[in-house]
Amino acid sequence: MPIDQHLLVAFTVTTIVAMITPGPDMLFILGCGMRGGPRAGLLATAGVATSEVVHVAVAAAGLAALFAAVPTAFAVVRIVGAAYLIYLGVQMIRHRKGVQDELDEQTGGMPGRRAYLNGLLTNLLNPKMVTFTIAFLPQFIDPRLGHVWLQFAILGAVLVVAEFIVDGLVGVLAGRIGGWLRRRKAARRRIDTATGGIFIGIGVRLAVES
Known about the structure:
Layout: H1 5-20, H2 24-36, H3 38-61, H4 65-69, H5 71-94, H6 99-107, H7 112-124, H8 127-136, H9 148-182, H10 185-208
């Protein structure tokens, strides 16, 4: 096997523990599920998982050294990601009428494509995920075994599977609860406001963290 089995077990356990600890990704998926239903929750999870594949590839290529060499790049990407989340939150709270409302009614509150793209972009625009991956994954790589890229690929696959199991479950459960609440018009408005607040909170947190 091209990877140390003991390291693989340790990585799997550590990853699951990290996944079940509420963080920005879980809160984001929770919000998408509540507003758009189980399908939106799963697709938001898929978007986050896709960005994690990119982060693993970046870690394997060592490109995160850019953030160390040019600290400004880290700050710029972080602020852009925070601004995007805040923008999404404000739009949900404002709850524009007209075409958007009709679209929301037809799709259960959030189109699947938008849930996926938002999940992809919010995670992709979080440079802390890149630096975390750079710091985390290499701890479970044994260069003496060779096939370093393959080791990264195996660990990345474990990461993505754990993402789907943990956050996907959160998205589906939130979607079912949200679906029941959305059938009550007053509750639907509260869901939009709560979801927008979650997104704004995550954005502010990203912006102020050093």
